[in-house]
Amino acid sequence: MTCSCGTEFTATVYEAVNVTLEPQLLYTLLAGLLNIATCPNCGRRAAIARPFLYHDVARGLFAYVHPRTDLPEEQREQLLEQLRRMYGRAVEQSLYLKEQQVRRRPGGAAGAEAARGSVEGEERLEPETPPLQVIFGVEQLCTLVNSLLLPEERLGKLALNSTSRQPEERQRFLAIARQMAQQMECQIEVEEEPDGYTVWLYGPRRAIGAMMRELAPRQ
Question: I want to staple 7 with a disulfide (CB 3.0 to 4.6 A). Which of 3, 56, 100, 150 is the partner?
Answer without folding.
Answer: 3
